[in-house]
From TrEMBL:
Protein name: small monomeric GTPase
Lineage, top ranks: Eukaryota, Metazoa, Chordata, Craniata, Vertebrata
Keyword ATP-binding on entry: no
Gene: RAB37
Stored SMART domains: ARF, RAB, RAN, RAS, RHO
Cited NCBIfam families: small_GTP
PROSITE patterns per UniProt: RAB, RAS, RHO
Cofactor(s) the protein needs: Mg(2+)
Length: 204
């Protein structure tokens, strides 16, 4: 396998309207934060960014979805292609946190079975209006067996880290290797080859 061979990962940003998905993506892509104006995403939008992990270029194709209910049927169609999901809530908005379970139910229904999920508590810079404690995010994440971080699309805290964690994830690396056609360990083939080598017919 060539050292700088590309790997592609489709990542989707999910969560209620206003939790900061678009800002999160802009912060990662351009290192900028546009404060004040809130322009709700209509339908779906995407941007690419290449990161390097262990000398391998990983092309992240990031889909920014609309959090508003009326666009759900549009975004459902894209779940199937996503290999990773960043699921955001807003630490200053309790209902966005309470809705995480509903989001996970949707994910369970529409996404690939082996999709990589990370839970993110965004707007961690606004500590004065915090409604959800960091421990509550951790507890929920543990319940579903997904990693968790608090982030800020405004200051950039943990934004790059979240995407790098996805690009680095062992599950996705393993799948990329398999897709590249590297032989994987097949227990059945192994047993068959051992049978052939053995002169004794009682090999189990
Ligand atoms: N203080 C602070 N404000 C944020 C942060 N992230 C987003 N915002 C603000 O929250 C509002 C909503 O941000 P968006 O990124 O547009 O939200 P969204 O999740 O993409 O919303 P939809 O497109 O409707 O799904 C904007 O006014 C942002 O300026 C953050 O980390 N900290």
């Amino acid at each position: 396998r060539k050292l700088n061979e590309d790997r592609r990962v489709k990542v989707m940003l999910l969560g209620d309207s206003g939790v900061g998905k678009t800002c999160f993506l802009i912060q990662f892509k351009d290192g900028a934060f546009l404060s004040g104006t809130f322009i709700a995403t209509v339908g779906i939008d995407f941007r690419n960014k290449v990161v390097t992990v262990d000398g391998v270029r990983v092309k992240l194709q990031i889909w920014d979805t609309a959090g508003q209910e009326r666009f759900r049927s549009v975004t459902h169609a894209y779940y199937r292609d996503a290999q990773a999901l960043l699921l955001l809530y807003d630490i200053t908005n309790k209902s966005s946190f309470d809705n995480i379970r509903a989001w996970l139910t949707e994910i369970n229904e529409y996404a690939q079975r082996d999709v990589v999920i990370m839970l993110l508590g965004n707007k961690a810079d606004v500590s004065s209006e915090r409604e959800i404690r960091s421990e509550d995010g951790e507890t929920l994440a543990r319940e579903y067996g997904v990693p968790f971080m608090e982030t800020s699309a405004k200051t950039g805290m943990n934004v790059e880290l979240a995407f790098l964690a996805i690009a680095n994830s062992r599950e996705l690396k393993y799948r990329a290797r398999q897709q590249a056609g590297e032989p994987s360990f097949q227990i059945r083939d192994y047993v068959e080859s051992q049978k052939k080598r053995s002169s004794c017919c009682s090999f189990v």
